[in-house]
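F.,

This is the one I mentioned.
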């Protein structure tokens, strides 16, 4: 059985980030999602002058809010990034509080409909202008037209938690009566949180079918009480890991997930597909039920048919369900899901096109899909359109094996689940040891000491728009740490400690920096003590294993120019382009001495040649991943080439390798 936890629920985290700062007393909320979407909500509240402190802790973000509301000098521009929830809930908050601001977002968010939230707010008396295209972001909210907002009775044509939340927040903050009904109940996290904070709301938690909620301010003294809770795990994130376990035939236990009935419709779909699900409830917190689930895979997944008022309760899981349908026995059907066309991408179109390209028989309808499941190998490109749920759904398909997919953008998962690709590893068929997928292309640059790898790799990365990474950084960081701990000569101690060592590449402005045990050694990595010890430390198997894993992890997130001595042979044996730089030892010694920018004698040169030859011998003779040219690497002898010529030669090779 695979046991997992998933990051805090995104929908609840947004609401905590946006509503807790509006309370009249202090709040502490733990376990928030640390994805880019929720960070956009926290950032926006800060820009609005809310007192919010945010800290990364084990288990997610913690926010502490002093309470007291919003304060702006002039209308700030609020960047909602990719997050519809941030933009739409904020529209309600700005309208209700009368605080002026401009809401904006990335190109995907700018293309999504805002009318559904702006019209009702205008009907309440909010003053709104479009800074760009009508009914799209950027939208300027200019405070209230009259003293306060008007009461509103809204009958929604589509079920939308974001619209419902915006109207409720506007009503509560302006203290006017509002009523919202929807054809099918959407998630009710806003209702539950507001009720928890003392707001008198009439609603029926967790009911299914048509939904209705009413806020009536009479007899309410009008203060939101502070909020204290830990956000439960995100069922939408859990769904991907559960999907991977079903396709891979493994049992999975997901601890402490939000079990709000408005969110977990997918469990009944998985049951219909044959999965066995045990649900173990935990105490409710912040008005939100939570559970631990154990999911057992069936021998064979069956097709499903969904539509009607179930759709709002599975809305974010449909990309995953569509991918499972592609591997189920029979023809699955998804109806009444036209809302998917206005998510982070037009998900119906993207799913139909992508599954179709992979060889699955799919029919796209105006409001749904039919998908004929099939066995056998699936091959092709996945264009995610920057949509996190599309990337993760196809990641699940790929992890199950029998699929060679090129997913164009894996990093978009960061908006909801930054560690998704690592979390998926245990579910990968053949894991551990399976070759992990990469974001995209890798150029491997190997070669002996002083062959010009670093300067070449850095320039090539810059010209290709890739990220430069030097495996030597990690070996040096571990050596630096071993010296610092006084165990640099004690190889068994290094080997024992290194698997649990907190060492990793951290993005820096022109590539990666490295951090070890919470410290960035910076120039300390270049010290003569580190240089003297690094080749011995880098022969230790445990050290090599850690370094290899960190480099591959970087490869799952970025396009890389990766340099070292075993990149093309051991780290990325499937790199799209491998080059092996060599140069005459005399020339290498001269280059190294010239780098020091001080005059040197023939004796200095002789000594440097001996040093480099010794290092070459060590690198070539070590038992694990010795320095050697991969059979498919292209050797470039740089002895009489200028650095620019070497870079040009590699770019030319890249142009044909990437075609
Ligand atoms: C959300 C509501 C849903 C959902 C989205 C998050 C929320 O959208 O798809 O991912 O947190 O309120 P709609 O409100 O458009 O249904």
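My design for it:
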């Amino acid at each position: 059985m695979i046991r997992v936890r998933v990051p805090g629920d995104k929908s609840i985290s947004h609401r905590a980030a946006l509503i807790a700062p509006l309370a009249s007393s202090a709040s502490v909320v733990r376990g928030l999602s640390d994805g880019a979407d929720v960070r956009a909500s926290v950032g926006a509240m800060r820009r609005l002058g809310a007192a919010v402190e945010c800290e990364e802790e084990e288990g997610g973000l913690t926010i502490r809010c002093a309470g007291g509301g919003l304060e702006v000098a002039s209308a700030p521009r609020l960047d909602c990034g990719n997050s519809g929830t941030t933009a739409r809930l904020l529209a309600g908050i700005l309208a209700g509080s009368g605080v002026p601001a401009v809401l904006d977002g990335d190109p995907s968010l700018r293309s999504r409909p805002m009318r559904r939230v702006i019209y009702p707010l205008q009907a309440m008396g909010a003053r709104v202008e479009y800074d760009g295209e009508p009914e799209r972001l950027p939208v300027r909210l200019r405070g209230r037209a009259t003293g306060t907002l008007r009461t509103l009775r809204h009958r929604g044509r589509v079920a939308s938690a974001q619209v419902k939340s915006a109207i409720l927040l506007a009503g509560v903050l302006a203290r006017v009566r509002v009523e919202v009904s929807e054809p099918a109940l959407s998630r009710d996290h806003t209702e539950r949180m507001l009720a928890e904070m003392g707001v008198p709301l009439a609603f029926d938690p967790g009911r299914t079918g048509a939904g209705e909620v009413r806020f009536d301010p009479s007899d309410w003294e009008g203060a939101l009480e502070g909020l204290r809770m830990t956000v439960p795990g995100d069922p939408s994130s859990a769904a991907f890991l559960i999907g991977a376990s079903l396709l891979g035939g493994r049992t999975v236990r997901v601890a402490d997930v939000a079990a709000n009935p408005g969110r977990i419709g997918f469990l009944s779909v998985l049951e219909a597909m044959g999965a066995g699900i045990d649900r173990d409830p935990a105490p409710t917190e912040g008005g939100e039920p939570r559970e631990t689930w154990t999911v057992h895979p069936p021998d064979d997944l069956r097709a499903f048919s969904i539509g009607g008022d179930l759709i709002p309760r599975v809305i974010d899981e449909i990309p995953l369900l569509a991918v499972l349908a592609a591997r189920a026995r029979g023809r699955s059907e998804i109806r009444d899901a036209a809302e998917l066309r206005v998510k982070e991408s037009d998900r119906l179109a993207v799913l139909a096109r992508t599954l179709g390209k992979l060889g699955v028989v799919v029919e796209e309808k105006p409001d749904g899909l039919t998908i004929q499941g099939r066995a056998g190998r699936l091959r092709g490109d996945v264009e995610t359109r920057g949509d996190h749920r599309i990337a993760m759904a196809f990641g699940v398909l790929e992890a199950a094996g029998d699929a060679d997919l090129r997913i164009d953008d894996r990093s978009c998962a960061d908006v909801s689940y930054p560690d998704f690709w690592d979390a998926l590893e245990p579910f990968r068929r053949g894991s551990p040891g399976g070759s992990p997928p990469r974001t995209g292309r890798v150029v491997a640059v190997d070669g002996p000491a002083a062959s010009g790898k670093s300067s070449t790799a850095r320039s090539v990365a810059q010209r290709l728009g890739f990220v430069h990474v030097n495996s030597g950084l990690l070996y040096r960081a571990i050596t630096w740490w071993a010296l610092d701990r006084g165990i640099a000569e004690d190889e068994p101690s290094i080997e024992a400690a290194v698997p649990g060592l907190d060492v990793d590449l951290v993005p820096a402005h022109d590539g990666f920096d490295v951090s070890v045990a919470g410290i960035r050694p910076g120039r300390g990595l270049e010290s003569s003590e580190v240089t003297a010890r690094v080749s011995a430390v880098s022969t230790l198997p445990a050290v090599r294993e850690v370094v290899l894993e960190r480099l591959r992890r970087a490869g799952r997130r970025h396009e890389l120019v990766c340099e070292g001595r075993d990149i093309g042979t051991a780290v990325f044996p499937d790199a799209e382009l491998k080059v092996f730089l060599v140069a005459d030892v005399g020339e290498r010694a001269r280059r190294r001495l010239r780098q020091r920018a001080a005059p040197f004698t023939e004796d200095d040169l002789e000594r440097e040649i001996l040093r480099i030859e010794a290092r070459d011998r060590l690198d070539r003779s070590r038992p694990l991943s010795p320095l050697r040219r991969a059979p498919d690497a292209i050797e470039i002898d740089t002895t009489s080439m200028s650095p620019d010529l070497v870079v040009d030669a590699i770019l030319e090779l890249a142009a044909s390798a990437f075609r």
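The first strand starts at residue 2 and ends at 4.

Talk soon.
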